[in-house]
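Help needed: design a sequence for this.
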């Protein structure tokens, strides 16, 4: 159903009532900003496990923004046109803190939100992840690759939870004709990451700015491909706007690959930090390499990332400088 709320903003955009789960997190809060800006009506749902009111404080009181404290592992009855399902801790440190809850969030959360989409006939987009490819033997990873995932390791709660969520999305599509979109997001960074989030970009920037040791896990030769948040959001919104026949999965990320060691050196160079590199044990099952094949995103969405790693890091460093008051 279409929302009946008055459209005070845009004549160009058809106003929709959009549910964003995990909306007070890093990506979710930026998505709230984007969709408010183009005139939609936003229901932001979050249990504030890793997200915070601080991320959406500037939106509180906006006539088209509503914030609801709710855990997606419980049913939710609301009327919406579109759902972005982002609820799930994304940093290994946080998703491993309560792994049972992590699996429940992905699996029970998907069931509840798919049930909601089925009842309301809303379109629903799943924030899946490159972790569905596990420690990949194929490089770069394209959507046709089924992955190499340990089902019983410390990352499994996240990887297998997200894989099961993908299965549920495709079964609700086949069985109930729910309009689904599955996007596989690769490492994304930018302003509003929490300083204690534990992911590599925020860790290294905070360590560099404070002059603390920079903690390299393993030998630093493992690779990742980092996408700046603005680029990722362009792709996410475009994915939601594809025709109903497009389900994905679709890789979203920046194919500019770098090693963890090179990332540390780049951050040291931009911040002019005197921090030293220190080496710590590599966590179990930490993928050795990761880089998206984004051919599908290029052809279906007409999208490719625009922000280079250096530029994105500089913008993120500026944010942390202000946040840490340095
Ligand atoms: P984040 O941890 O900042 O955001 C996750 C949000 O979900 C937080 O606000 C958290 O409080 C909320 N949440 C967690 N469990 C919940 C529950 N049971 N009920 C309601 N809310 C809950 O992480 P992010 O980077 O913004 O990631 C957002 C989504 O994108 C996640 O689903 C993540 O798996 C996915 N993703 C992110 C990346 C990335 O690099 N940022 C990569 C791949 C996938
Ligand atoms: N659900 C929800 N909101 C809704 C509709 C359903 O949270 O608006 C939940 C409900 O808890 C249900 C689940 O989604 O268990 C799956 O819904 P579905 O209709 O697929 O299954 P059923 O209700 O038959 O179990
Ligand atoms: N990493 C690191 N030092 C840190 C945090 C992470 O060397 O302080 C490494 C981590 O072992 C992994 C890479 O950086 O190889 C990316 O880690 P992150 O937790 O950001 O994301 P993910 O492993 O989920 O891609």
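Sure. Designed sequence:
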């Amino acid at each position: 159903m279409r929302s009946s709320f008055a459209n005070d903003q845009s004549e160009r955009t058809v106003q929709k009532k959009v549910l964003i789960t995990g909306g007070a997190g890093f990506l979710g809060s930026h998505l709230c900003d984007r969709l408010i800006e183009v005139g939609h009506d936003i229901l932001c749902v979050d249990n504030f496990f890793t997200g915070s009111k601080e991320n959406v404080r500037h939106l509180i009181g906006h006539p088209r923004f509503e914030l609801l404290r709710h855990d997606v592992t419980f049913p939710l009855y609301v009327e919406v046109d579109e759902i972005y399902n982002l609820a799930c801790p994304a940093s290994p440190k946080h998703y491993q803190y309560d792994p049972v809850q992590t699996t429940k969030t992905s699996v029970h959360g998907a069931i509840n939100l798919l049930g909601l989409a089925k009842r309301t006939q809303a379109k629903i987009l799943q924030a899946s992840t490159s972790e569905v490819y596990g420690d990949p033997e194929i490089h770069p990873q394209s959507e046709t690759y089924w992955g190499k995932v340990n089902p019983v390791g410390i990352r499994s709660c996240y990887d297998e939870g997200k894989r099961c969520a993908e299965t549920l999305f495709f079964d609700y599509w086949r069985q109930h004709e729910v309009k689904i979109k599955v996007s596989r997001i690769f490492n994304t960074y930018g302003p509003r990451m929490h300083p204690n989030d534990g992911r590599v970009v925020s860790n290294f920037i905070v360590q560099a700015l404070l002059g603390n040791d920079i903690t390299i896990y393993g030998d630093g030769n493992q690779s990742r491909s980092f996408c700046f948040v603005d680029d990722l959001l362009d792709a996410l919104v475009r994915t939601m706007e594809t025709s109903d026949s497009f389900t994905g999965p679709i890789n979203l990320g920046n194919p500019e690959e770098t090693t963890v060691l090179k990332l540390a050196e780049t951050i040291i160079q931009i911040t002019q930090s005197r921090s030293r590199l220190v080496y710590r044990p590599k966590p179990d099952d930490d993928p050795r390499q990761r880089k998206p094949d984004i051919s599908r995103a290029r052809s279906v969405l007409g999208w490719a990332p625009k922000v280079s790693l250096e530029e994105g890091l500089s913008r993120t460093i500026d944010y942390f400088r202000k946040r840490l008051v340095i």
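Residues 99-120 form the longest helix (22 residues).
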